[in-house]
Structures
1.
Amino acid sequence: MNPHAIIVTIKLKPGMGDAFRPFIMENGETAVRDEPGCQQFHIMTAEGDPDTYFFYEVYDSADALDTHREQPHFKKFRDGTKDMIAERSVQSCTVLKT
C-alpha cells in the first residue's frame, strides 16, 4: 500500500502568522515524534506572506491520518487556531515515490 499524504494551505487573518506558528510547530513535531503512522510533516510559509502556511504531511495510510486527527496535540492546534484562520484547503494525495 502506498503512503497517504495531504497538502494543506492555510490563509490566516492578517497579522496572525506569529501567533499561529507555535501551534503548528508543536503539532508537526509531536506528530512525527509520537505517532508511528506519521512519516513526514513539513511546515512552510509563503515567501513574502507570513500569513500563508503550507503543510505537506505523509502518513502510512488514510487511517493513520484519521488517528492523527484524534490526538491531543492536533486538537490543541485545531482549537487554538480556529479563530486565526481565514481559509483552509486540504488536498489528499497518494504518494507514488519518496
2.
Amino acid sequence: MQQRPRPTGRRMTRQQYEAQQRQNRIAIAIIAAIAVLIIVAVILILKPHGGGDDAVATMVEAGAGQPAAQTEAPQTQAPQSDQPQAGGVDLAAMTGTEPENTVQATAAPAEEAPAAAETPVPELPPAVDEVFSTRNPDGGLRSVRMRVIGDIMFCQSQLVYARDSGYDFHNQFSMIADQLANADYTMGNMEGTIGKYKSSNYSGYPQFNAPDVALQPLKDAGIDFLTLANNHMLDRWSGGVKNTVDWVEQYGFAHVGAYRTQAEKDKPVIYEVGGIKFGFVAYTHSTNTMERRGTDADAVALVPYIQKADFAADVKKLRDAGAEVVIAFPHWGKEYVRTPDDSQKKYAKQLAEAGVDIIIGSHSHMVQPMGYQTVATANGGSRQVFTMFSMGNFISDHTVQYTDNGVILDFTVNEHQDGTFTCDSVGYIPTYTWKQNGAVTVLPSGKYLNERPSGMDDENYKRMVASYYEIIEVIGDKFQLING
C-alpha cells in the first residue's frame, strides 16, 4: 500500500493554535467596531437640518417618497413599513374639547380596499353635483370661496411624455380644469423646482426640476397661488429656489414659502381676495439635507423650517400688516401614512394657538383627515380652527395604493357682523391620477363613477372607484362630498 507523504513542516502546538485564534478574534472585533463607528458617522452626517424635537428629527426621507418611473428601470414601490396603518385621529384630543365636525376617521388595511360596484354611488355622505354658493347670505359682508389641491409633482415619466409633445403639459390637467377654476381663489402645493438650472437636465425623483412651461397649464386651469415650502425646494440648491420664484412670478402666481433674499423672507405675505386680506405662512420639516450640500451659503435662509419657526411672531407680523385671515401651509409628518403623527398634531395645535385661522398640510402623499380644533381666545371665549392634515397627491406618477388619489378641498371664508371670519361650507372633490400609455391625467373620480372616461380600461376603472371610497373612508361623513 502506498504511504501518504509526511508533512515537511512542524505541527502547531495547542498553545500556539489557541493564541492564534485569540488574535483572530481580536482582529475581527476591531474591524467590527470600526464598521459601527463608520455607520454612526454616516447617520449623523445625514441627520436632517434644524434640530428640534426627536419626533421631527426622524422624518427625513430620501425624497418625495416613491421614485418616479425611470426609462431604464422599473418604478420603486413604497417600503412595506410605510404602508397605511389602521387607526384614526381625533382633533378634539389636542385640546380636550369636542368641536363641531371633528373627524375621527378609521383607515382600513390595504387588502380591504373596496372593489368596484355596479352602481358605485355611496349613500353616505350624500354627494352633490352643484357647487356651493360663494356669497354670504348676510348681504354686504364679504365672502370668498376657495379651493386647494395637494402635491403637484412632475415625475420622470411625466417629463418624458411631455418632452415628446414639445413639453406641453396641458393634457395632464385637461380633465380637472373646470374643478380648479370653479372658485374665487385656487391654491396648490408645488413640490419641486421650476426652470433650467445651469447644464442639469430636467428630472423627477430624487431631485425634482421641471421646465417653466409646466406652469402654463396650471395657470390656464385656474390656479392662482402656490405654496413652495417643501422638502424638494432645494433640489437645485439656492440657485434653483431663486429660479423657481422668478418663474412662478413671471407666470402670474401669488406664492409663499420660498424666497430669493432674506428681506423677501422677512416681508409679510398678504394678498387681497374678494376684499378680504389673507395672510399666508408656509413651513417645511426638511429639505432632504440639500441645505448641507448646496454651493451657496444662503440656501438655508431661503426656505422656512417648521422646527425653527416662531408661529406667534409670524402671525403677529401678518396681523400688524393688515391680514384679516391667516392661512398656514405646513409640509410635515411622515410619508405614506393616512393618519397624522404626533409632530403634526403638536404643530397644528401650536399654529392654532398662535392665531392661524386655517391650516392646510401636505407631504404624506396620502389623504389624511380634516376637522376643527377649538382654541381659547384672549377675551375668554373660543374659536374653531379648520385643519386639513394632508390633501394627498394631486398629480404624480405614483401607483402605490392611496398615492394615486387626492382631494380638492373646497371651503368658504365668511365675514360676520362682529368682524370675525369663519371657514364654512367645507367640502371636497376626490381626484384620481389615471396612467395610460405613458400619459398621466388627473380627473375628478366622482364624476366618472357610473360612466368611465373614454378609453379607460377595467383595471384603471376599478382602481379609480376603489380610491374614491378610500378617500371617503378617511374624510368621514362630516363634510360635503362633491362629485361635480
